[in-house]
């Protein structure tokens, strides 16, 4: 029993000290890019009238998957050695810059689709979209803070500019679904 308890303790210690690397963060950003594109495509494809509940629920699913991908990114940034080197920081920043337009498009088009979601024969979808937006906003806030805390000093202004643009797009979309 004692021996097993010691083993369990050792296992949990080694798990909790497992560090991540910048390569993990780059892989996470790849995944976030893929999931963002999937979500953006699904939202753009949702028809302005006559959309199906199935497609609306698929959008919800895509949003949940994106949230998990972002949360994994946050925990890997938090587990990686900081600050990132200049080269790594630049690679990470460029990956984020590459995703930014898709995030902004998603948040713009979701607002344009509110009437389409309201028009579905089953209610509750706009409320579900609002909840997804709030969850994604919260996950994104944490990821942004983690990335900025890891960024080399000279890259922080650019990172902060991206952060502001994304946060303000979230605020606009959340406001549209809150009224
Ligand atoms: C987005 O999330 C952050 C952190 O949880 C929160 O402070 C902010 O108010 C949220 N934005 C909106 C528009 O709800």
From TrEMBL:
GO cellular component: extracellular region
Domain of life: Eukaryota
InterPro entries, alphabetized: Cell_wall_mannoprotein_1
UniProt entry keywords in alphabetical sequence: Signal
Family annotation (Pfam families): HsbA
Position of the signal peptide: 1-19
Protein name (record): Hydrophobic surface binding protein
């Amino acid at each position: 029993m004692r021996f097993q308890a010691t083993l369990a303790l050792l296992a949990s210690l080694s798990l909790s000290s497992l560090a991540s690397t910048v390569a993990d963060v780059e892989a996470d950003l790849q995944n976030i890019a893929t999931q963002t594109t999937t979500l953006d495509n699904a939202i753009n494809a949702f028809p302005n009238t006559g959309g199906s509940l199935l497609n609306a629920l698929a959008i919800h699913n895509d949003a949940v998957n994106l949230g998990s991908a972002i949360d994994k990114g946050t925990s890997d940034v938090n587990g990686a050695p900081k600050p990132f080197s200049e080269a790594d920081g630049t690679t990470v920043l460029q990956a984020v810059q590459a995703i930014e337009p898709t995030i902004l498009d998603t948040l713009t088009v979701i607002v344009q689709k509110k009437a389409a979601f309201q028009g579905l024969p089953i209610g509750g979808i706009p409320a579900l979209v609002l909840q997804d937006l709030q969850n994604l906003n919260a996950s994104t806030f944490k990821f942004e803070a983690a990335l900025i805390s890891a960024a080399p000093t000279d890259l922080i202004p650019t990172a902060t500019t991206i952060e502001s643009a994304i946060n303000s797009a979230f605020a606009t979309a959340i406001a549209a679904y809150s009224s």
